[in-house]
Structures are given as structure tokens and as C-alpha cells.
Design brief:
By secondary structure, this protein is α+β, with helices and mostly antiparallel strands. A hairpin with a 2-residue loop joins strand 2 and strand 3.
Length: 113
Amino acid sequence: MAGDVGSQIINPSGALNEVQGSVIEGLSHLMGYEITIERGRAVQSNFHEYPPVRLTQAPPEIEVHFLKTDNPPTGLGEPGLPPVLPAVCNALFTLTGKRIRTLPLAKQGYSWA
């Protein structure tokens, strides 16, 4: 993950954790997060029915690079999440030749195993 964080990083270890966490959450959305609606209400009530990626399923290392510029400091967590989904889907396309059109990937037969 690479990002323009502006002119300074106030808390470098916090910044690193924020971006790594956003990548893991992005992988959760990609692989398994799904909200289903029945009779106008969400079926899933909590994480036992909406499982995030566990640390044992996460990549062993998430490489993060910060570009410091003259821009004012900005947020770190939210900008790191959205690119994860298309990056992984494009990598799967490169690998398989099949475009991913719907998520989560677990419903299409992809797994962490």
C-alpha cells in the first residue's frame, strides 16, 4: 500500500497500523462481508454472522510506504481500503482470465485455504 499522507506523520506506528488495518478490512469486504435483507431488515446481527478476516487469514506482511509532500496532513485509514478490492480482483483476472463482477468472493468458490 502506498499513500500521500501530506507534510508529516504525527504518529508513525499508528499510521502504519491504520493502513494495515484498512487492507485487512478491505480483504474482509472482498472475501466474506455480505449484508442480506429479509422483510426490510438485515439478517446479520453481529460479527458471528458477518465474519471479518481473522489474523490467521491475513497476509503475513502488509508493506506500507508513505509519500511525504507539502500537502497538509490527511487521513490514513479510509483511503487505504477502497483500492484493495479492485487490486485483488484485477490480480485474479490476470491469473485466471476471469473478471470478477460480484462480491463476496467466497460465494464464487474462492477461499483462503
